[in-house]
Amino acid sequence: MNKRGFASDNNAGVHPDIMNAIQNVNEGHTIAYGDDPYTEEAISLIKQIFGPESEVFFVFIGTAANVLGLDAITRSYNSIICSETAHIHVDECGAPEKFTGCKLLSVETQDGKLTVEGIKKHMHGFGFEHHAQPGVISITQASEMGTVYTVEEIRKITDFAHQNGLMVHMDGARISNAAVSLNKDFKEFTTRAGIDVLSFGGTKNGMMYGEAVVFFDKDLAHDFKYRRKQGMQLASKMRFISAQFTAFLSNDLWKKNAEHANRMAKLLEKEVSSIPGVQITQKVEANGVFAIIPENLIPVLQEEYFFYVWDEEKSEVRWMTSFDTREEDVHGFCRLLREKLT
To answer: Of the candidates 228, 249, 270, which is a domain's last residue?
Structure first.
């Protein structure tokens, strides 16, 4: 199926600059498993963003980045607190629990964002051997609902976590979209805001594949190279991940891609908001638009522009934009939606 639509930013192709970067390192031989100059360059770029004290490890996919990052900062008797919509809770097939041994404790939210008040309900049982011990709070930036944590909101969570002996993990699969939304550099709402471990994503913003696990305390990463190998995420031809990150982080490509995706989401929000029978359900702060539309229209619209249903009971759908979404895609979809609703 080569149908354009609003299903997922994963459905988009690879940015030409990323594809060229892959091709450019496909010459000759170089040492495998990351001992190559391309990986050294990519890691250096990420350390320039987050600081020289950070430790960086490339993996293939976001689930691996989340699971291995969490595994590094937990013991199997810990619990991990997250939003009920978090990717680690809903979309990773139980991998975090299987590989870390930890119990996931979810918090109901209205907008996908955790708050200290919501987290508090799981902050009990400390020292009691019959209860999993709270160990990590995991937040998603941007959230699965397309909303974005402010720096102040993150700091409240990290301060609370650290005061209670917990660490904070950030799932940054769409971190570029969040940075553009906040108009802040990555460091401002990660390491400076108290995040301990970050899953730094690129796949949803123009890369072919590849994510990075970034530790902001070297001690947390002391044995991570073994965890990555056991986790089957040590790429032999790592230069092809590294070259993508170098292109992604050079000339603000990450920013240009995310700005475009976010702009297309705002355009889509503006257009559908003027159509009777469409109810926007979440703030549009990144590249996702959530809306309630008549249930009978969903399959008709999906024939032309594929997208996913988020909540069948409410007839709530999710429309995602990406770096290659075109204005004509938005206008064409909105014309179709208006036509079917009138």
So the answer is: 249
Low-confidence ranges of the chain (pLDDT < 50): none
**167's torsion region: left (phi>0), alpha (psi -120 to 50) or beta?**
beta
> Is 160 within a domain?
yes
pLDDT in tens, 112-147: 999 999 999 999 999 999 999 999 999 999 999 999
Residues 121 and 84 in one domain: yes
DSSP string, 244-298: HHHHHHSTTHHHHHHHHHHHHHHHHHHHHHTSTT-EE-S---SSEEEEE--GGGH
Q: Which residue in 132, 137, 133 sits closest to 115, CA to CA?
A: 137
326 and 283 together in one domain: yes
How confident is the model at residue 273, as a pLDDT?
95
pLDDT digits (tens, 9 = 90+) for 48-70: 999 999 999 999 999 999 999 99
**pLDDT score, position 264:** 98
Residue 56's alpha-carbon distances to 169, 215, 235, 305, in angstroms, are: 15, 7, 14, 38
Q: Which of 249, 274, 300 finishes a domain?
A: 249
Instruction: Report the pLDDT value the prediction gives residue 51, as an integer from 0 to 100.
Output: 95
Are 181 and 299 members of one domain? no
Helix, strand, coil shares, percent, the chain, to 5: 45, 15, 40
